[in-house]
From TrEMBL:
Region (Disordered): 259-278
Signal peptide: none
MF GO annotations: metalloendopeptidase activity
Protein name according to UniProt: Peptidase
Residue span, M23ase beta-sheet core domain: 170-241
One Pfam family, short name: Peptidase_M23
Residue spans crossing the bilayer: 9-28
Keywords: Membrane, Transmembrane, Transmembrane helix
Biological source species: Streptomyces pilosus
Top-level taxon in the UniProt lineage: Bacteria
InterPro entries for the chain: Cell_wall_metabolism_enzyme, Dup_hybrid_motif, M23ase_b-sheet_dom
Amino acid sequence: MSARKTAMTAFRGLQLGFLALVAAYIAFDWDYGLWWNLTPLALAYAVVITVNRWGGTPDAPGVAREPVETAPPVTGRWSALNSPADRTPSHGIHAYGQTYAIDVVAEPGPGARPGFTALWPLARRPARYPAYGAPLRAVADARVVRAHDRQRDHLSRTSLPALLYLILIEGSVREMGGVHRILGNHLVLDLGDGVHAAYAHLKRGSLTVREGDRVRAGQVVAACGNSGNSSEPHLHFQLMDGPDPDTARGIPFTWRGTGVPRNGEVFETPEPAPAGPA
């Protein structure tokens, strides 16, 4: 087991230890200060803070890796959120291979995508968002190395109370559940040369491929959903140097014809040309 994997396992174990100690303190009325129970929680966050800042690049320190060019994973009109064109790590952490990750949401036209609300509605069904069910495509010829799509698509977290719930409660519970609960339904493709593409928050039951399958660039492999640690239906995409997000480090990317869209930038990608005869 790698040091990074061991650290992430220890992080989740310490969180569970904190909950177990609190439960035992209440159940057995142990005679010691409750604050002692916070020790494993403090250690857990010391571990994850270290991991989050641990080696954002697979290359030598101070040596920037050239972005890997791929086709875009979506077609149509989309906009970018949490883009590595604006900052790295793009999501604030290096953990889960997210250093150069990007989120994209469908923007087919003005008013098509519901906005953030202060209080009401608290949540919306995922089908209210134009990204939900949108086809996602292989960014290169590749082999499928991870494929999971059994988790449900939950309601949006796009009101202030729902977002606070996601950040303060749901996110912590998902961290304890491991990378599967963070990414939700997800797919990892091996592009070769040590490069892997991860697609996260996919729609339940939408995968068209299985582990071991070979795919061609432009092939539809899944649909956009709202599973895992997600506030609304969107695609979370990243390149990384291994198939396991718990141990992988991020790799910069650029999309052919699009580059790396900045936060809020709207971009359009055409449907791929039909494949010729074999």
